[in-house]
UniProtKB/TrEMBL annotation:
<dbReference type="Pfam" id="PF12776">
    <property type="entry name" value="Myb_DNA-bind_3"/>
</dbReference>
<feature type="domain" description="Myb/SANT-like">
    <location>
        <begin position="10"/>
        <end position="98"/>
    </location>
</feature>
<dbReference type="InterPro" id="IPR045026">
    <property type="entry name" value="LIMYB"/>
</dbReference>
<dbReference type="InterPro" id="IPR024752">
    <property type="entry name" value="Myb/SANT-like_dom"/>
</dbReference>
<protein>
    <recommendedName>
        <fullName>Myb/SANT-like domain-containing protein</fullName>
    </recommendedName>
</protein>
Amino acid sequence: MAPKGEGIVEWTDQLEEALIDIMVDKFQRTHTSAWKWKDWEQMNTELEQKFPGVTLGADKLRTKSRRLKSQYSQFTQLIQHTGVGWDEQTNTVKASPDI
């Protein structure tokens, strides 16, 4: 593991999307998301092959996965409120000012 401050990676949209694609593919093959450490290491290897020079590690992938799950839960709760919607063209939440 890299010492604090070293190896910090900025999660770009492309890197995040690639991780999600890898996790979806893994889920479709295994039919579970209760992955073991070796599974996270394998996903890390796949991601590093797609993005040479990027070193993340299995622990960072697990942490990012948890954050994505939390964000997704918050997002789905938000758009379930009456009067709140999602504009796919602008990628923004739409709601009246009083909401």
